Automatic annotation (TrEMBL):
Molecular function as annotated in GO: histidine ammonia-lyase activity
Biological process annotations from GO: L-histidine catabolic process
Organism name: Anguilla anguilla (European freshwater eel)
Annotated protein name in UniProt: Histidine ammonia-lyase
Lineage of the organism: Eukaryota, Metazoa, Chordata, Craniata, Vertebrata
Entry EC number(s): 4.3.1.3
First-level EC class: lyase
Length: 511
């Protein structure tokens, strides 16, 4: 019998990127805090009073965008909301994975739980029931310009909840949304005034994909330091550049943290290295920049990721739809919180910052493979000529770094006017998020190649041992990839080590 999943209580104010990743993996169920339920009810009362009093308020009884001045009759308000969702479900491209759709849905629930959207508590509970059953709408990945938020993807998300379009669950697989919901004993949403707009207006596509990108960037940044330290070790580099006094006089937090990680795994009074000890009489005064300047380069990448995580954490717990309901003031106010510029700019910055981990890693791979720089066999394999070793693995790393240079061009510097010039400045944040994820994946793959190459280089130093932490990393890699004594199919080795990095296993107890 399956164990009951742990429940997370959402209040719209305290969701973390780590929580969102767990929700995406299906590890958590959702409920609302009592305070959130009260807030949702109070906001809905404001909307119901507006309808009862025949007041004209944007998004409740008017058209949308250019049609904002068109008043809709009371008997057409349900149709107004449903038409909004249907017409805006105009995305294209591959569907989001179940994990990413769960993240998108969970984040939308969190925003609705803030109590400023005007959705009914009944509708919000129905959406939570769908999440907990993993009934996930088909959401194409392309179509948002990040203006009135992520209208197209969030409309696809809402469409399935209405029992229209396609939906997936582990129990049914892909099918008609209404049938998937019925298979779980759930009814399609019937939208009340304001509820369609409440479901589709916001930055949750940008931010949920961004949360995955930032968490993966955090993981690979931590591991990049250990991988670079292993490369320094097998290239017989000096540890002098990581002296704490050097970094204390340029005290950027990320730089100091990276230098500490290097010191914690390299030869020291705590951990000794036979390789370093043997090479000490011949130790270079200083190394090439790709080795010596790792704290400075990796450091700013770490600081960038931390900054972006802060922006996204605020965005995840913000009311980003329009208009917003303020029960304490008995007001509904139109504004611009849906504009995606904050997460878009942050995710463009993330791509630029984390890319540098791959850029400098590729230079270290070159040093490992080049016998004139490494004092090791060419391309890290014996019988060169007969065997090519890591020759093309290095080319793959170079190709990925080159792709990243194009992907790092910021999408948020672009804007195209939409909605008959009502939405005349947009963020292009959806593409910022999607390409940030691609950049992070390329960084993971380049560092997987460096880790493979560094472990292979270590074989040529045997029987000498490295430090205990670096030997632990070597044992981890050797648990999934055996040493190269002759050429073989390399792609499975790269994929196996990439998987280790995705699971953040290339770390050490001390670092």
């Amino acid at each position: 019998m399956a164990l009951q999943k742990q429940c997370i209580a959402l209040d719209g104010n305290s969701l973390t990127t780590e929580d969102l990743i767990s929700l995406g993996k299906g590890l958590l169920r959702i409920k609302l805090t009592p305070e959130a339920e009260e807030g949702v009810k109070r906001a809905r009362e404001i909307v119901d009073n507006i309808i009862a009093q025949d007041k004209v308020v944007y998004g409740i009884n008017t058209g949308f965008g250019k049609h904002a001045n068109t008043v809709i009759s009371k008997d057409k308000l349900k149709e107004l909301q449903e038409n909004l969702v249907r017409s805006h479900a105009a995305g294209v491209g591959s569907p989001l994975s179940p994990e990413r759709t769960r993240m998108l849905l969970a984040l939308r629930i969190n925003v609705l739980a803030k109590g400023h959207s005007g959705i009914s508590l009944e509708a919000l509970h129905a959406i939570i029931d769908a999440f907990n059953a993993s009934c996930l709408s088909l959401v194409p990945e392309k179509g948002t310009v990040g203006a009135s938020g992520d209208l197209a993807p969030l409309s696809h998300l809402a469409l399935g909840l209405m029992g229209e379009g396609k939906m997936w669950s582990p129990k049914t697989g892909w099918g008609e949304a209404k049938s998937v919901l019925e298979a779980h004993g759930l009814k399609p949403l019937s939208l009340k005034p304001k509820e369609g707009l409440a479901l589709i207006n916001g930055t949750q596509m940008i931010t949920s994909l961004g949360a995955e990108a930032v968490e993966r960037a955090l993981a690979i940044a931590r591991q990049a330091d250990i991988i670079a330290a292993l490369t320094l070790e097998v290239l017989k580099g000096t540890t002098k550049a990581f002296d704490s006094d050097i970094h204390a006089v340029r005290p950027h937090l990320g730089q100091m943290q990276v230098a500490w990680r290097f010191r914690s795994v390299l030869d020291s009074d705590v951990f000794s290295s036979e390789i370093t000890e043997k090479n000490r009489p011949h130790q270079r005064v200083q190394d090439a920049y790709s080795l010596r300047c790792s704290p400075q380069v990796h450091g700013v990448a770490n600081d960038t990721v931390a900054f972006v995580k802060s922006i996204l954490s605020t965005e995840m717990n913000s009311a980003t739809d329009n208009p917003l309901v303020f029960p304490e003031r008995d007001l509904i106010i139109s504004g611009g919180n849906f504009h995606g510029e904050y997460p878009a700019k942050a995710l463009d910055f993330l791509a630029i910052g984390v890319h540098e981990l791959a850029s400098i890693s590729e230079r270290r791979i070159e040093r490992l493979c080049n016998p004139s720089l490494s004092e090791l066999p060419a391309f890290l394999v014996n019988e060169g000529g007969l065997n090519s070793g890591f020759m093309i693995a290095h080319c793959t790393a170079a190709a990925l770094v080159s792709e990243n240079k194009v992907l790092c061009h910021p999408s948020s510097v672009d804007s195209l006017s939409t909605s008959a010039a009502t939405e005349d400045h947009v963020s292009m944040g959806g593409w910022a998020a999607r390409k940030a994820l691609r950049v992070v994946e390329h960084v993971e793959q380049v560092l997987a190649i460096e880790l493979l190459a560094a472990c292979q280089a270590l074989e040529f130093h045997r029987p000498l041992k490295s430090t205990a932490p670096l030997e632990e990393v070597h044992r981890l890699v050797r648990s999934v990839v055996r040493p190269w004594d002759r050429d073989r199919f390399m792609n499975p080795d790269i994929e196996a080590v990439h998987k280790l990095l995705r699971e953040e296993k290339a770390s050490t107890r001390s670092a």
